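re: ur question from yesterday

yeah so i grabbed the chain u mentioned. its 267 aa long if i counted rite. heres the sequnce exactly as i have it in my notes:
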Amino acid sequence: MEYLDVFLVSIGGTTTALLVVGFLSKSLIGHIFNKEMESYKSKLSHENNIAIEEIKAELLRSAKKEDRTIEYEQVMKRYQGPLLHAVYDLQSRLYNIIVQGLINAYYIHGNDSEKEYVVNNTVFVIAQYFAWTEIIRREIQFIDFRDLVNTKKLSELRDNIYGLWQTDGYSDLFRVWAGEQRAIGELMVEEKNNQLTCIGYAAFLNKLKHNNEPLFEKLQSNIVSLSSSGEDSFPRLKEIQHALIDILDYLDPDHIRFPIERRGYVP
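ran it thru and got these structure tokens back, copy pasting raw so excuse formatting
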């Protein structure tokens, strides 16, 4: 007799056997189902954990971006005004030199006091611009700008001016290397009340009087040379003036600080 027949007889006939087989089948299916459920729950939990981590990472990235934006806005809130004035003063001086004949009127035909003022004050407005760009560079150097569109635009505008000062595409007059631009800015920077600022004109004149600063002397020499070189130096200065107007338009697009008629491009 087969083992199954013996088993069926031993447990009491066909009906009982069917019940037993049904119970065993149900138990087996239940076991398989529970196993599958546990596997599915484990998989679902793993996927949920991954999704949660991705959401947390995205929230963290957004929070960091927001922090960088706020930090940048705080820096610009402190320094945008002084930078705007430095940009305006320099572009205005270049406009006066190129278009309105400042050198001819007050250096070539001026008295000793006028000559001294034209040279020293022009050096000051150039150095003042370098100072404020250096201050902002220090303040924002640790902010990651990769996804901050506004900061990229300002950086592009400033980099353009850096390039115009140092390019060899023009005459050597007023050629200032990038390192020299930063060095001039550093000479003009001081700290007051735990905040960086640019020294004033009086302090600058005192520095000229008591310190031999080769970088300032180089600029002085360039300005004096304008009296003989004339328009040979204008292409570089004109392009710088145009680039400065671009920064004015970017930082003061509604012409609140400086009206549009006072920020014209050199023809």
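noticed a couple things. The chain is about 75% helix and 5% strand. also The longest helix spans residues 14-98.
anyway ttyl
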